[in-house]
Design brief:
alpha+beta; binds manganese (II) ion; about 30% strand; six-stranded mixed beta sheet; about 230 residues; Fumarylacetoacetate hydrolase, domain 2; five-stranded mixed beta sheet
């Protein structure tokens, strides 16, 4: 072990349904992966090349609370399927990609939309809009050995009981094996990497006091209070 000169930070992790925790190494997020969401964000829904950004592993949070972040007055919810990898590599073929998946979870890609919009306009990176403290509320991870590899099923998000986002995993443009394969051409994927697979349409703002209830069929629900 290295002789650390300051105490080593804790390993970020996601709780596992049934016990234990999944250690997180990297967090890749895909943009515009449901056609209806691409359209609502002002883009062509045709299958363009996928693009990715990252959140920080320690932006993930399973406390059930989302503290409204500073420097934004337009923080949006995005419900997403999380894919967690137990192994990785480079140039992974699409037909071998699912062999690397450990499990799946429900998460939120919370976004400072005003800051992201400003960054887009100026051709700047998205971190300030996407990779802030506790910007990735996440529910328990379900092992693929129990839930299989979902390719269809309802995805929804409610705010204070009102339905805001709905879609189906069968509407995902770049499928889970394709995302893994594509990422592995550009990065060396490893155990502990997770992928947030994009959000269906209906994204919108939250305010302090809101209660967010996200659900993906077969993976249970995630409730988060905005504080
Ligand atoms: Mn997203």
């Amino acid at each position: 072990m290295a002789d650390f000169v300051i105490p080593a930070p804790p390993v970020p992790s996601i709780p596992v349904s049934g016990g234990g925790a999944f250690p997180v190494r990297r967090v890749y997020c895909i943009g515009r992966n449901y056609a209806a969401h691409a359209v609502e964000m002002g883009h062509d829904p045709d299958r363009e090349s996928p693009f990715f950004f990252q959140k920080n592993p320690n932006n993930l949070d399973s406390s059930g609370e989302f503290p409204y972040p500073p420097h934004s007055s337009d923080v949006h919810h995005e419900v997403e399927l999380v894919v967690a990898l137990k192994s990785g590599g480079t140039n992974i073929p699409v037909d071998k990609a699912l062999d690397h998946v450990w499990g799946y979870a429900v998460a939120l890609d919370m976004t400072r939309r005003d800051l992201q919009g400003e960054a887009k306009k100026q051709g700047r990176p998205w971190e300030i809009g996407k990779a802030f403290e506790r910007s990735g509320p996440v529910g328990p991870l379900h092992p693929a050995t129990k839930v299989g590899h979902p390719t269809a099923g309802r995805v929804e998000l409610k705010v204070n009981g009102a339905l805001k986002q709905e879609g189906d995993m069968n509407q995902i443009i770049w499928k889970v094996p394709e995302m893994i394969s594509y990422l592995s051409e550009y990065f060396e994927l490893q155990a502990g990497d997770i992928i947030m697979s994009g959000t269906p349409s209906g994204v919108g703002p939250v305010v302090k006091g809101d209660k967010i209830d996200a659900m993906i069929e077969g993976l249970g629900s995630l409730s988060v209070k905005v504080v």
